[in-house]
Amino acid sequence: MARNIGSRYTTHQILGRGSAGTVWLGEGPEGPVAVKLLREDLASDQELVGRFVQERTALLGLDHPHVVKVRDLVVDGNDLALVMDLVRGTDLRTRLDRERRLAPEAAVAIITDVAEGLAAAHAAGVVHRDVKPENILLDMEGPLGPGGAHPALLTDFGVAKLIDTPGRTKATRIIGTPDYLAPEIVEGLPPRAAVDIYALATVLYELLAGFTPFGGGHPGAVLRRHVTETVVPLPGIPEELWQLIVQCLAKAPASRLRASELATRLKDVLPLLKGIPPLDVDEPDAEPAPEPYEEDAYATATGAGEPGPRRAAVPLVPGASADSNRDTHTSMRVPAPDELSGGPLGTARAPRPAGAPRPGSARHKAGAVRKRRITLAVAAVVVAGALGAGGYLAASGEDAPPQDSQQSSQP
Ligand SMILES: Nc1ncnc2c1ncn2[C@@H]1O[C@H](COP(=O)(O)OP(=O)(O)OP(=O)(O)O)[C@@H](O)[C@H]1O
């Protein structure tokens, strides 16, 4: 049934649901649109509505072929809606679920598009804060690019920031999707443009591997890996491409490439990837069962029980009920330094060449445990030095002063 949104738009049919609201196919004065209607409890939050109006200029001003254009922001009674260009196609998560892994050329073509979109946003002082496959739309009506990839557009700009209002989330909580969260966010620092680069490199890794570099298990373990662990190389990945991923997954934000540099470097790499099939890697198995004498520091410190599902579907805000089982935003506590530095859930997930023995198998077990101990010992030393700010935030329990986290630190 058609429903009016403000005086200019009607919605007809649901395109999809996320944790912050529902996206509808709609009609506006200039033709079809997508309307993201925020959840009622968000729409009735006066502070959030104020922020929504404040963001208007920045969001409406973003105009780039690889960013989904926001046409209007509607505040009407209980309705709070973002009116966007309709992208006829699918989102990258759906494609990835279908294909499991993409050929390097197609993966890089998609990520290049998104890097270009991000470069424009960052230049305008806007940080996305929730780059992930769900927020990358593929325009099936657009021309085919390298590797047969359709144009990719980044969507959901500003939504993470809207939700992350000082009254709604404390400085001690994190907003985002665990698999894609940059280490500085885990440490409680304000998100700058480099968090988007980290998340985008994570998406690139995921397109190539079929899994994220630090995902798996309990969300707390995922957060800890971002801070303490090093990404493990993918078997068969061209070295030039691997180096770009490593650089953009650097723990120090300043060491990562900027979005425009990343786009340029990816374009340089593209011709080398022609005709390379999807990488032949097996997803690492779940963590091997902890050795009896190794204490699960995270579980002990937090009361967390068994590791959760591979992707944490923690609601954005209490009461949210995303009706899909896909990744969603997370609002969770900034872990304390001791939680970040210990426990066997922190082992980096090493991809295996197809058919190689599992890391948890008898043949590999002794080596794996030794390696885990070394990783954790190094991690403990690194985190002890690196988490001063995060530790303070975790301990303070105070609301943060309002911080314009969407202002980019980059020109
Ligand atoms: N501009 C658009 N045009 C066409 N479809 C869209 C558009 N924006 C979003 N969608 C579709 O609507 C669905 C829901 O999007 P939404 O942004 O609400 O959720 P999400 O990003 O999947 O999850 P979350 O908000 O929890 O991170 C997505 O599957 C996407 O494919």
TrEMBL record:
Keywords: ATP-binding, Kinase, Membrane, Nucleotide-binding, Serine/threonine-protein kinase, Transferase, Transmembrane, Transmembrane helix
Biased composition (Low complexity): 346-360, 402-411
Domain of life: Bacteria
EC number: 2.7.11.1
Region (Disordered), start-end ranges: 277-370, 392-411
Keyword Oxidoreductase: no
Annotated Protein kinase domain residues: 9-273
Sequence intervals crossing the membrane: 374-395
GO molecular function, one term: ATP binding
Feature: compositional bias, Acidic residues: 280-297
UniProt xrefs under Gene3D superfamilies: Phosphorylase Kinase, domain 1, Transferase(Phosphotransferase) domain 1
Feature: compositional bias, Basic residues: 361-370
Protein name: non-specific serine/threonine protein kinase
Source organism (scientific name): Streptomyces viridochromogenes
Taxonomic lineage from the root: Bacteria, Bacillati, Actinomycetota, Actinomycetes, Kitasatosporales
